[in-house]
Specification:
The protein has 556 residues and is an alpha/beta fold. It has helices at residues 2-12, 25-32, 43-56, 60-73, 75-84, 86-93, 97-103, 105-108, 125-134, 162-176, 195-198, 213-230, 243-253, 262-286, 302-317, 322-326, 343-346, 370-377, 394-403, 423-429, 463-473, 480-491, 496-500, 511-528, 542-552, and strands spanning 115-118, 142-146, 183-189, 235-238, 259-261, 295-298, 329-333, 336-337, 381-384, 408-411, 435-438, 445-447, 450-452, 455-456. The protein folds into three domains: 2-257, 3-Layer(aba) Sandwich (Rossmann fold); 266-457, NAD(P)-binding Rossmann-like Domain (Rossmann fold); 462-552, Malic enzyme, N-terminal domain (Rossmann fold), CATH 3.40.50. Strand 10, helix 20 (423-429) and strand 11 form a beta-alpha-beta unit. The chain is globular and about 75 Å long. 51% of the residues are buried. Residues 71-254 form the Malic enzyme N-terminal domain.
């Protein structure tokens, strides 16, 4: 399948990275207007017409489908619309709507959107990618690759994962300033374990159970080597692999290739940035030292472990050792608090990525529920990455408010249908005291005469800057230090008005400015670690680097 689709896509694109860009309406009309009559169509009219059409579409999915068509036909028009209404359109082109689009991908399919590679063709991957690269007029700068095995907490969607690769790259362009012709979405089709998808007569992917991790690793080895050879300067972002594979691939490839995993490292960065702001506000209210915060996680998957590991850097900044920083975290999975005496831990059956956060201080007692853990730990912060809607129940939230002057509660699961706690419930159940950030967007709420704006721990705030910064630095790899630098830069990107409003994150309408600052922080750290190759940027101070990042951004 991969060879057929890849070759078809290459011919469809006439050697470019995106499906054929139709001639700009204005250009084609201007050329021929002198010889024949034509309507007087302008780009501004096209933009107004698109906005009006979107307003008339009854559902977000239909808007998503129509915008996808526009993106393939006229990227400049597409990104002009997003530029003008990023806050309104981001939930349409990405979460939460992209989740439904991935679930129904084969039903709404209108043509190839990127590179589809099948595990059945694993022995031909170098040949396929070399041929593909040879036919391109623009070399990819950013690849987002998924196997569709764990899409936004919605499960194994197989080839439908292409929607997430496309969605992420939309945000790279809109938020980070990457040229759309330098983006390449990739889906690695390794089958799917979702039987209803395999049996769907419209399904366009492989109709087989998902490959084992061993078989998938063999495929990934070939893909990573071939992609890095075909596109030697590109940054490769891994997206929505299931937990065990995500950690295994990150550990295996991080020091070999210019790559990072957004679910593990991007999520960790954006939550660290928000937690830095929240912890400072909470400590100011309570008088508690920053190093004394205690964090409970509901969720033990790749995202949860990745976030917790990245958040440890906050405590390292307060002077704690690695072991001391790790002791500030308690992780709960489906079996309860992860302890050294839990039967699956004793028997060695626990997933390897969870082992780092095993608690050894429970004296043989198990804590099976979130409420039990809250009473045991008395945390200052509660983080949700469980993909379980409503998992932060009223009694738990009220108890957090009793324990803390300003409880930090981050229900981060996407999409909204998987979120542990709504913003309205968080405000009501804490009497408005909560420091709140979610993964999906919630509307502001008026309470006690004030407009309360929810934080959104959206990776959109960091991953475009991470990828763009790595590109601009010519970084040979994306190091852990560069990821942490992105979080620090994000926390420092809050402007004075946002700080006065008590926000934990910059507003999304400033995303280009924020991404430039994040990218500058990533470049500086790459330079400090000797990982950069772009000598022109060396020696520049922070403000000069930010200006360089702004100047390098693409605009429609």
């Amino acid at each position: 399948m991969a060879a057929t689709v890849a070759q078809a896509f290459s011919s469809l694109t006439n050697g470019t990275l995106t499906p054929p860009l139709t001639p700009n309406v204005n250009e084609s009309k201007e050329i021929s207007r002198s010889t024949s009559p034509h309507p007087n169509i302008t780009s501004d009219q096209n933009l107004l017409r698109l906005k009006a059409h979107l307003q008339n579409l009854p559902t977000d999915l239909l808007k998503h489908v129509h915008l996808s068509k526009i993106r393939r036909e006229d990227p400049a028009l597409y990104f002009s619309a997003i530029r003008d209404d990023l806050t309104g359109l981001a939930p349409i082109v990405y979460t939460p709507t992209v989740g439904e689009a991935c679930q129904k991908y084969s039903h709404i399919y209108q043509g190839p959107e990127g590179l589809y590679l099948s595990i059945d063709d694993k022995d031909r991957i170098p040949e396929i990618l070399a041929e593909y690269a040879a036919n391109l007029s623009t070399t990819p700068q950013i690849l987002v690759v998924t196997d569709g095995s764990r899409i936004l907490g919605l499960g194994d969607l197989g080839i439908g994962g292409m929607g997430i690769s496309v969605g992420k790259l939309n945000l790279y362009v809109a938020g980070g300033g990457v040229n759309p012709h330098g983006t390449l979405p990739v889906v690695l089709d390794m089958g799917t374990n979702t039987e209803s998808i395999r049996n769907d007569p419209l399904y366009i992917g492989l109709r087989r159970p998902r490959a084992s991790l061993e078989e998938a690793t063999e495929f990934m080895d070939k893909f990573m080597a071939a992609a890095s050879s075909a596109f030697p300067k590109a940054v490769i972002q891994h997206e929505d692999f299931y937990s065990e594979a995500a950690f295994a691939f990150l550990e295996k490839y991080k020091n070999q290739y210019r790559m990072f995993n957004d679910d593990i490292e991007g999520t960790g960065s954006v939550i660290l940035g928000g937690f830095m702001a929240a912890a400072k506000q909470a400590s100011a209210a309570s008088g508690k030292a920053l190093k004394d915060h205690r964090v409970v996680f509901l969720g033990g998957g790749s995202a949860a472990v990745g976030v917790a590991k990245e958040m440890m850097n906050f405590f390292r900044m307060q002077g704690l050792t690695e072991d001391e920083a790790r002791e500030r975290f308690w992780l709960i999975d489906t079996k309860g608090l992860i302890t050294s005496t839990r039967p699956d831990v004793v028997s060695g059956k626990i997933a390897s990525h969870k082992k780092y956060f095993i608690r050894n201080d429970t004296e043989g007692k198990e804590y099976p529920s979130l409420a039990d853990v809250i009473e045991f730990v008395k945390p200052t912060a509660l983080v949700g990455l469980s993909t379980t809607f409503g998992a932060f129940e009223e009694a738990v939230v009220r108890r957090m408010a009793e324990l803390n002057e300003t409880p930090i509660i981050f229900p981060l699961s996407n999409p909204t249908s998987k979120c542990e706690l709504s913003f309205s419930d968080a405000l009501n159940w804490t009497d408005g005291k909560v420091l709140f950030a979610s993964g999906s967007p919630y509307a502001p709420i008026e309470r006690d005469g004030l407009l309360r704006e929810p934080g959104q721990g959206n990776n959109f705030l960091v991953f475009p800057g991470i990828g763009f910064g790595a590109l601009q630095a010519g970084a040979t790899q994306v190091s852990e230090g560069m990821i942490t630098a992105s979080a620090i830069s994000l926390s420092e990107a809050l402007n004075e008005e946002e700080k006065r409003a008590g926000l934990l994150y910059p507003r999304l309408d400033r995303i280009r400015e924020v991404s430039a600052k994040v990218a500058a922080g990533v470049v500086k750290k790459a330079q400090e670690e000797g990982l950069d190759t772009n000598e022109r940027l060396r020696g520049l101070d922070h403000e000069a680097l930010v200006k360089e990042m702004n100047d390098a951004q693409w605009w429609p």
